[in-house]
Amino acid sequence: MDKVIRILKSFNFNESEAKAYITLFQHGPCSGYELSKMSGISRSKIYNILESLFQKGYVSNTQDGKVLLYRSEPIEHISRLIKTSVEDGLDMLQESMSNFEKTIDSEQIWNIKGYENIINKCIDLIESSKKEILIQVWSDDLTDRLEEIIVKKQKELGRVLVIIYDSEDNYNTKIKKFYKHGFEKNKIADTGSRWITITIDSEEMLHASIKNYNVAKGIYTKNKGMVFFANEYVKHDAYCLRLIDALGDKVKDVFGENMEGIRDVFAIN
């Protein structure tokens, strides 16, 4: 029950409301007195709690003789109410915020922490792009939504460069045009983590290091030097991959089966 209570509290239930709703859901219609005994909520509080849930549309009631009975509404109904409320609230927020004058973004470098926050920022950046997108991403981090928006932008813009890393060498994706990077085990050995690099319209960039789904941090900036560096980094990766694809076995003859020789950048003749 504790987990469900935490979830309901995130949707504007208080602890007692969540406990009362779950108890009704589990045991079916009952009076306030019976619900008080089953839930452990005092009789002095239970009727105010039930009235609050009734006003929100989360429970309904009926008169059964002298007793007022309550029942929980189906969870699907609750979900629709919450979703509608959230969407209406977000629409009002966007409309209200649009009336404020927006300050011009500086070229400072901003930190981002948390896997979901990083993925959501990637999606926001890609959705806002107008001209071109350059992206390096591991298949582990190609969430359905991220993959979907990349596919959409490839159709809209055309100029979308995607380089995918896949430690299992599967490259199973709905993205039609992308470079398979290879050398993933070497990359993980070098860095100890996955990463995402994105630039959009040569104006904004994001780079994130992802050790696992619990440990992820990144940076975002409009700094012209950083954006240029990230752009060139992704492009040069693509240049090398095109050369390797074009030369095929000739490259392996020179640098080895696993291309280990090409990684020694200090070995200049």
Automatic annotation (TrEMBL):
It comes from the Bacteria. It comes from Senegalia massiliensis. PANTHER family: HTH-TYPE TRANSCRIPTIONAL REGULATOR TRMBL2. Residues 8-71 form the Transcription regulator TrmB N-terminal domain. SUPFAM superfamilies: Winged helix' DNA-binding domain. This is TrmB family transcriptional regulator. InterPro entries: TrmB-like, Tscrpt_reg_TrmB_C, Tscrpt_reg_TrmB_N, WH-like_DNA-bd_sf, WH_DNA-bd_sf. Residues 108-210 form the Transcription regulator TrmB C-terminal domain. Signal peptide: none annotated.
